[in-house]
Amino acid sequence: MRILKSGVIALALTGLVACTQSPTGRSQLQLFSSDEIAQLGAQSYSAIKEQEKVSRDPQLNQYVQCISNDLIAVLPSPWGQEQWEVTVFESDMVNAFALPGGKIGVYTGLIDLAETPDQLAAVIGHEIGHVIAQHSNERMSNQFAAGVGLQLGGLLIGQEMDSDKAALVMGVLGVGVQLGYILPYSRIHESESDELGLRYMAAAGYDPREAAELWRNMAKQGGQNPPEFLSTHPSPQTRIEALEKLAVEEMPTYRQAPKANCPKP
């Protein structure tokens, strides 16, 4: 009976695997269609616009739209041909995001912190990188696969252990999955989006060296950070050092690109 159930589990998990490659060549698990993920992105975007105060400042909107347009113009197909919607949110929050389905949101707190258009382009490019690398699909797929794996594993555990022991083992498996699989991939997502963001900003005529400067500004404002091992983001210093190396690689592209012209209001 145990062998039969193990075989069923292995077959079920094998059937779930749908591997693709990210723009950097990394293998990914994607179980959902692009249309499904785009629909979720559009729904989330609408909800955020209802919850947050949308800025009506024409200069700020023009500034963010100008930078976004420059970045979109250099994106690979089909994202470069997509009609992206850009919204500025009036909030002190230092944040920006991009969602599947061509949605970009930038908070005025980030506009204040980003000292130059290049620094703001670094963040917007980074967020667009998450979309192009389909990190939302991958994260949902990883979580779904992990959840299914634990549930199927519980069928076996429940056959041979009492409820207390089964709960203990499931708890250990839960921690192992969270720390050993999902969180590390999230850190990979951040580093991969940094790489893609610098690639896009350099091609659009924004100085890639300014990405590290932005993170220095963020680090000055940050409080106590969790240990990097338990964080879904690289530590500020790790990120700054990686961005500096990536900037060197992208400088030839930047020097050959027409210089961007989106002055900060």
UniProtKB/TrEMBL annotation:
Gene3D superfamilies: Metalloproteases ('zincins'), catalytic domain. GO terms for biological process: proteolysis involved in protein catabolic process. Signal peptide: none annotated. The keyword Transcription regulation does not apply. It holds the Pfam family Peptidase_M48. GO terms for cellular component: membrane. The keyword Protease applies. This is Peptidase. It comes from Pseudidiomarina insulisalsae. The lineage of its organism: Bacteria, Pseudomonadati, Pseudomonadota, Gammaproteobacteria, Alteromonadales.
